[in-house]
Amino acid sequence: MEDKKYIIEVEPALDAKDGRPSMGPVYRSVFAKEGFPSPIDGLDSCWDIFRMSAEKYPDNKMLGTREFVDGKHGKYVWLTYKQVYDKVIQAGNSIRACGVEPGGKCGIYGVNCAEWTMSMEACNAHGLHCIPLYDTLGNFFTILFHAGADAVEFIIGHAEVTIVFVEEKKISEVLKTFPKAGEYLKTIVSFGQVTPEQKEQFKNFGATIHSWDEFLSLGKDKQFDLPVKKKTDICTIMYTSGTTGDPKGVLISNNSIVTVIGGVSRLLDSCNESLTEHDVYLSFLPLAHIFGRVIEECFIHHGGSIGFWRGDAKLLIEDIGELKPTIFCAVPRVLERIYSGLQQKVSSGSFLKNKLFNLAYSYKLYNMKGGSKHSEASILSDKLVFAKVKQMLGGRVRIILSGAAPLSSHIEGFLKVVACCHVLQGYGLTETCAGSFVSIPNEMGMLGTVGPPVPNLDARLESIPEMNYDALASTPQGEICIRGDTVFSGYYKRDDLTKEVLIDGWFHTGLLILARCDIGEWQPDGSMKVIDRKKNIFKLAQGEYVAVENLENIYVLVPAVDEVWVYGNSFESCLVAVVNPNKRSIESWARENDISEEFDSICQNPKTKEYLLGELNRIGKEKKLKGFEFIKAVHIDPVPFDIERDLLTPTLKKKRPQMQKYYQSIIDEMYKSTKN
């Protein structure tokens, strides 16, 4: 089979000099061999993205919400591009009628919905800075500021937000930010209704709150000219949730988002998977996160349709079935749950069904590894065996895109076979406007990687000598660095941090103040493999380095484990872990071992801990882990790691400092047990 390489070298490597480490060659996508995508005439801002699509696709369905009739959710009801445009113009006039001028700061707080997107577009129309608010930055704020100030209050004050659009059930959270927020915040707009009591409460603080319909009427008889928007203008300030440290306001320009759209379009066009006005997307990735925002902008640019979920993870599959999306974007945690559900269905089937599934899986996987496209690898298996999986995702999905965190290779590989669609993995940060690397359709060799660079940026690796990562080695490894118009404009009110990470036009994924960086390894085909994050590498007492994310991806392969958090530090000689067990698997094991207790009690049973520790060690031996990488003690938490306890970010990444704080007494007990 012909070797393919999806990158080209555009600048040579640099040796170490003047205290700076060596740097590998600069690469870009082979799809940008003749240059990056040319600018589109008239497309200079996020407002132009929507405006041009409203002109081109006025009658196409744009925003869909499930109707609620007789106490039940029914079909999706749609607003066309023209209808949304008219409401956006009205909303923009109402914002201006409240005294907010171009360049002002507008907050949006709540779950994804049509009003969220319309509020965002109204900001785009009038050159306002759209600032997503969310309370899941977590209780770490209490530690930072010693005053109980939560994330919403912090962002409103730091960004000087004067008007906030808010989900109805979040109104009480906004009220809690007063009186402090009242220094700037004067107008609140509910996406739903407002009670007389709420009006009075805000009035007492010198602020005004409107229902959505009341607000739209404010600008009904007014017409404000739309200001000229430039590419360099800031369109949004995204506050990073972060897994450590003080959240930062990331300044994203119009040009960054427009450039991302051009690069994604070039990539998909080059792979014959272009987005079109017929594509449908389920919006459930938080719009307060850059991944969700950029995906929606891409769909709007192509005139696609966006249906909103109901905000309940338990109902997500039902929403998918009703909407029947063609593109499904998710974070790994969601795909892990889909994978677990499928595995349970397979294992609970009859011997014959099990045998048929495994034969079909092995045959299709063999053909895909041999170079066959997923749609041609086993047409019969797709029809007879895997069609039900496709129907579970609505029956029309042609691309699944995973981002925001690493997706385990075994889950990615499994879904590539059974989902009957492309399963792609991407990589990016808020500071690089999301997608910087994306894997290529029908390339099984990219399994476990995030693919080559998107064709709108340059990438290189920088050596990390103290970690023995060499960007000039035969297998180049080092800190991932990115250059291009997608890179952010700086951290709001933090020029000091901006200077640390933007060096000679390159964004360094290492935030020096947090000792964090993403460590990559170039693959022969030009794809990037993210080995680990420097902040997720620590030393044990004997001096051995532990790449903790890599270990967690191995230990989670145990069928009885849904999720695992591995902990260690430089004062201890071994690793311990907190495990979220797989309920069905553990209960099945308990029955086989004559343990008849409730699930919570099973999890506390010493025999269960002994069993799980044995399973973790078994997989460790199977994967040939080093002695110091084995888990020596385990705690079983029957409650999954969650956002509510501040253990996960909005994109479901582990918040390691918060997890350590939450489980500290348990960690101490585990280490005590290893020494007895």
TrEMBL record:
The keyword Oxidoreductase does not apply. The keyword NAD does not apply. GO terms for biological process: phenylpropanoid metabolic process. One of its GO terms (molecular function) is long-chain fatty acid-CoA ligase activity. Belongs to the ATP-dependent AMP-binding enzyme family. Residues 551-592 form the AMP-binding enzyme C-terminal domain. This is Long-chain-fatty-acid--CoA ligase. It is an enzyme of class 6 (ligase). Residues 51-492 form the AMP-dependent synthetase/ligase domain. It catalyses: a long-chain fatty acid + ATP + CoA = a long-chain fatty acyl-CoA + AMP + diphosphate. It comes from the Eukaryota. Pfam families: AMP-binding, AMP-binding_C. Coiled coil: none annotated. Catalyzes the conversion of long-chain fatty acids to their active form acyl-CoAs for both synthesis of cellular lipids, and degradation via beta-oxidation. Its EC number is 6.2.1.3. It comes from Artemisia annua (Sweet wormwood). CDD domains: LC-FACS_euk (cd05927). GO terms for cellular component: endoplasmic reticulum; membrane. InterPro entries: AMP-bd_C, AMP-binding_CS, AMP-dep_synth/lig_dom, ANL_N_sf, LC-FACS_euk. Pathway: Phytoalexin biosynthesis; 3,4',5-trihydroxystilbene biosynthesis; 3,4',5-trihydroxystilbene from trans-4-coumarate: step 1/2. Keywords: ATP-binding, Fatty acid metabolism, Ligase, Lipid metabolism, Nucleotide-binding, Phenylpropanoid metabolism.
